[in-house]
Amino acid sequence: LKVRMRATLYLAVLACSIALACSISTKPKNYEYEELEKWVIANGGMVNTVIGKNSKGYRGLFTKVAAKAGDKVATISGACMLNTGSITGTFLTPTLTVLRELLHPDSRLKPYLNVLPKRDE
């Protein structure tokens, strides 16, 4: 159950990162999202979402296919997850882990890291 909850949390963070990054990016609208989607699929995941706007003009993630309650709109494989082990209430461990990956030019997480907001955004 804990693994499932953690995977759900990672998926939620990933989805929010995608939506946020696409809304503030200076590159073409969906470039980073498309690269992230290719990376997730290449590593055994599935993404049935697209960036769009609702009838009120708000940007968000929308499914590419009709979905009903309980349907999966995305799956993330372990190869795409950043695991910092047991987080004990401090943000130091995940922060240092992300910083290490950001500073590594060949990070396996590069497509994910590219959708994170930049310092000046």
Question: In a few lines, what is going on in this structure?
Answer:
By secondary structure, the chain is of the alpha+beta class. The protein is built from four helices and four strands.
Could you please describe the fold and organization of this structure?
- By secondary structure, the chain is α+β, with helices and mostly antiparallel strands.
- It has one domain.
- 42% of the residues lie in helices and 12% in strands.
- It has 4 helices and 4 strands.
- The strands form 2 sheets. The protein has a two-stranded antiparallel sheet.
- Helix 1 packs antiparallel against helix 2.
- The longest helix has 23 residues, at 2-24.
- It starts with a helix and ends in an 8-residue tail after the last helix.
- The model is unreliable at 22-28 (pLDDT under 50).
What are its keywords?
4 helices; globular; signal; SET_dom_sf
| Shape by Cα distribution | globular
| Share of helical residues | 40-55%
| Structural class computed from helices and strand pairing | alpha+beta
The tally of strands reads 4
Radius of gyration, in angstroms, nearest whole number: 15 Å
**What is the N-to-C succession of helices and strands?**
HHEEEEHH
> End-to-end span in angstroms?
37 Å
Mean pLDDT: 74
Low-confidence region ranges: 22-28
Characterize the largest beta sheet: strand count, sense, and whether it forms a barrel: 2 strands, antiparallel
Beta-strand residue percentage:
5-15%
Count of structural domains: 1
Number of helices: 4
InterPro entries: SET_dom_sf
Keywords: Signal
Signal peptide: 1-23
